[in-house]
Specification:
heterotrimer, A alpha/beta, B alpha/beta, C mainly alpha, A: alpha/beta, Rossmann fold, 4-stranded antiparallel beta sheet, C: mainly alpha, MetI-like fold, 10 helices
């Protein structure tokens, strides 16, 4: 089934502001740092929005806020029109399952004391029969092109690429609608990047997904994104269709980024 | 490039895991010349990181390292593999400096950057506090900081990744080494910071004659900046030689595959990865390590490890059927 | 073949080690080897039971405190501070002052007053592990808090708990031996290693074997538990690829 990126908005971020309070060693001096300042954007159902910026620009904070890990000081995050920061416990758990993260460090995203099978079972909808669970696990594993052997392995027995694919399988297993990929691809080697990019593109079609792709690597962004937003010092300075941004950027910082990425 | 800063021959490392000897890399040989930038490229997990650490003997106690790695330069030559431990202490920081992938993890979180840099300075300068501070400021300016005193007073967690990596570079060169080993220093950085770091490396080569051994999986950067290339796969060196030549005429199928992946990013159909390993692990003994993924593999490739061939211009490859 | 540790044989008073009595005999002609074996039961029992309660109570309190934070954390930690203010030996000796010394009393008081250290260690570990990416990922899966706590956090804080527990067994045995040595612990005719040690002191030069073997028993046991703890931790960590740096 091919998804038509119709104009339905799945996620909307409105005037998001997040501040961190930094204390020195003993807690005397307190500094308030603006991690995000009045950031607003939206993502249509079925599209891939890339957020590009330096490390420390705040792009990961956006992800953390959307994922309900860092609370906003002001602003709203609306998923399918509902404010995620007003959810009660049960609604929150349902929300978590709809929007799954894939982090940069697959090593740290997997529980070292659990086998892959257990982690995937945890991701599945609990009220399923055992056969159904097994069937789905096999389906998701083959979707990410992993052999069933990995089910009985612990994370440390897998290669980097395999671990990242387990993370992706886990993100799919919750029957999610949207994946947030936070630097999930850029620090891998080129061949693995190619592999994951192809995989993500296939999965998006197969499972009708929406992607928020956060990265500093413009090469992968160029491959995967529909729209691109540029984040600098906690502000969204430019956002538009991929071709517009790559071919005719307006902001000087965007132009600088593009220049530095060309070899 | 006449003098050799570092001459490595037949370096092999194996580590005991769960009772079995696992070979991390074997038979690695290369030469690093003065002011030269040698890039070690290849996929993640190919043993490149441990190769760097082995040169400074930062490896676990039960690891077995063999071969030779001789550093020359202005002081007496030392074989990093066989010299006694106390001699390694005079090598680390003084003759070889190292920059790691995660700058934050390699720095002490409870000391300011300035204090850590002072610790890394040579004793002669460290003794006088004023000259130590002056040198610290000079070094921070050299790497491109506009406000060196502010950086010196800061703690690692107060600086961004790009700034930290520059500070880590200062730490590595503070002892005035002639060789810098950089293990994926720019992987965690964005394009702007990466560019500045590479520019910094160029200045180190041009102004100080430093030789740099640079491990990276970013083929694009390697082809742009490096003089020489060492292509590794699964712990074995597949090809080595001048970067320009390898880019034009790769001899090894793996090198060609890597170059193809890089090119495919810009193609309309999108990136194409190197095909996955087809042979199960057990069947891989004895033959070429790349045979399972090589499009040109013949039966002999699976059974016999190819020998290293080279021509006089320090160009070499390990393949039964090198490309023309 | 152990003999009856209570059987007195007045013809064989204070015999040095021999084939019939591998550890010799004490002042009442009792076989020392048997007494040490039986004494071991007492020492080990108290070591293990006290540690068990301390670890269970301490782990529960530490996990609740570390995971939920907020006012439960603050309240529990103040409770820990208050409990830490009571030195357990003095409490024990005071209670003994009101009644009589006994094995059961030692067991009870030590069990109630040894869990605080474990609670603090567990809480610190939970605070660290809670921030790990795989725990955040588990929360992101919509798992219940209980699931996250028991499957994602608890197995990853086991190592320090094990180390703490094995050290505690050793230290409790030493405490018990000390108390018995001064007569405030196990009472005759029962004997733990501490009481035997005390008896040995009455004739240190002459019947040296009494002091030697009882002291050795304590030392070997404590070291033994520490080694077992190290071994357990190694097995746990190697199963999950965590390498000792």
């Amino acid at each position: 089934m091919v998804i038509n990126p119709g104009r339905q908005i799945l996620l909307e971020v409105k005037n998001l502001t997040v501040r961190y309070r930094q204390r020195n060693g003993f807690g005397w001096r307190e500094k308030t740092v603006d991690a995000l300042n009045d950031v607003s954007f939206f993502i249509h159902r079925g599209e891939t929005l890339a957020l590009v910026g330096e490390t420390g620009s705040g792009k990961s904070t956006i992800a953390m806020s959307i994922l309900h890990f860092v609370s906003p000081d002001s602003g709203e995050i609306l998923y399918s029109g509902e404010d995620v920061w007003k959810f009660k416990r049960a609604e929150l758990r349902a929300y978590h399952r709809k929007i799954q993260p894939v982090f940069q460090n697959a090593d740290e995203s997997l529980n070292p004391r659990l086998k892959v099978r257990s982690m995937l079972v945890d991701a599945l909808v609990p009220a399923l029969s055992t056969e159904e669970k097994n069937r789905r696990i096999r389906e998701y594993l083959s979707a990410v092109q992993l052999d069933e052997d990995v089910l009985d392995c612990f994370p440390h027995q897998l290669s980097g690429g395999q671990k990242q694919r387990v993370c992706i399988a886990r993100a799919l297993a919750t029957e999610s609608e949207m994946l947030i990929l936070d630097e999930a691809i850029s620090s891998q080697d080129l061949s693995l990047q190619a592999h994951l990019l192809k995989l993500l593109s296939e999965l998006k079609k197969k499972f009708s997904l929406t992607y928020l792709y956060i990265s500093h690597d413009l090469e992968t962004v160029r491959v995967i994104a529909d729209r691109v937003g540029i984040i600098k010092d906690g502000r969204l300075i430019e956002i538009g269709e991929k071709d517009e941004i790559f071919n005719s950027p307006e902001e000087p910082y965007t132009q600088l980024l593009l220049e530095r990425s060309r070899f | 490039m006449d003098r050799l800063a570092l001459d490595v021959r037949n370096l092999s490392l194996s580590i005991q895991t769960e009772g079995v000897d696992k070979s991390i890399f074997e038979d690695v040989s290369f030469c690093l010349g003065d002011s030269s930038l040698l890039a070690v490229v290849g996929e993640s997990g190919g043993g490149k990181s441990l190769l760097c650490k082995s040169l400074l003997r930062l490896i676990p106690g039960d690891a077995r390292l063999s071969g030779s790695a001789v550093i020359s330069g202005l002081q007496t030559p030392v074989d990093l593999i066989s010299c006694p431990d106390f001699e390694m202490e005079s090598v680390r920081g003084r003759r070889i400096g190292m920059v790691f992938q995660e700058p934050a993890a390699s720095m002490n979180p409870v000391m300011t950057c300035g204090e850590q840099i002072c610790d890394a300075l040579p004793k002669t300068i460290r003794i006088d506090r004023r000259s130590a501070r002056r040198r610290t400021t000079e070094l921070l300016e050299f790497v491109g900081f506009k406000e060196p005193s502010r950086i010196a007073r800061s703690y690692p967690h107060e600086l961004s990744g790009g700034m930290l990596q520059k500070v880590a570079t200062v730490l590595a060169i503070a002892g005035e080494p002639s060789i810098l080993i950089a293990d994926e220093p720019s992987t965690a950085l964005d394009a702007v910071n990466r560019f500045e770091l590479m520019e910094l490396f160029q200045r180190l080569r041009n102004e100080f004659g430093m030789s740099i051994l640079w491990v990276t999986h970013e083929l694009r950067s390697a082809l742009t900046y490096a003089d020489e290339l060492l292509v590794m796969y699964a712990g074995n060196v597949m090809e080595s030689g001048s970067a320009a030549e390898i880019a034009e005429h790769p001899k090894h199928p793996y090198t060609k595959a890597l170059l193809d992946v890089e090119k495919s990013f810009r193609e309309p159909d999108g990136p194409r990865p190197i095909p996955e390993e087809t042979l199960p692990v057990k069947k891989r003994d004895g033959g070429c390590v790349f045979a399972g993924r090589c499009e040109f593999a013949k039966p002999i490739c699976r059974n016999e490890m190819p020998k290293w061939e080279s021509d006089q211009r320090r160009r070499g490859w390990r393949c039964h059927f090198p490309l023309k | 073949m152990p003999q009856d540790p209570y059987a007195q044989n007045l013809e064989e008073i204070s015999q040095p080690p021999s084939l019939a009595h591998p550890f010799g005999t004490d002042f009442f002609g009792r076989d020392l080897f048997s007494r040490i074996l039986y004494g071991g039961r007492l020492s080990l029992t108290i070591g293990i039971v006290v540690t068990f309660f301390a670890v269970v109570i301490g782990t529960i309190i530490g996990m609740v405190s570390g995971y939920f934070g907020g006012w439960p954390d603050a309240a529990l930690m103040r409770f820990v501070d208050v409990m830490l203010g009571f030195p357990r030996l003095f409490i024990l000796l005071t209670v003994i002052g009101f009644t009589r010394p006994s094995f059961g009393l030692m067991l009870a008081v030590l069990s109630l007053f040894s869990w605080m250290e474990v609670a603090r260690i567990v809480r610190a570990e939970v605070l660290t592990v809670r921030e790990r990416l795989y725990v955040k990922s588990a929360v992101a899966l919509g798992l219940s808090r209980r699931r996250v706590l028991f499957r994602y956090i608890f197995p990853n804080i086991l190592s320090p708990i094990i180390v703490s527990a094995t050290l505690m067994v050793g230290s409790v045995i030493v405490i018990e031996s000390g108390l018995s040595f001064i007569g405030m612990g196990v009472q005759p005719p029962d004997a733990s290693w501490g009481t035997i040690l005390n008896q040995g002191f009455q004739d240190l030069a002459g019947a040296w074997w009494i002091t030697l073997f009882s002291g050795l028993a304590i030392v070997v046991t404590v070291i033994g538990f520490n080694l077992v703890g190290d071994g357990l931790r190694n097995i746990l960590d190697s199963k999950t690829g965590v390498r000792e740096s």
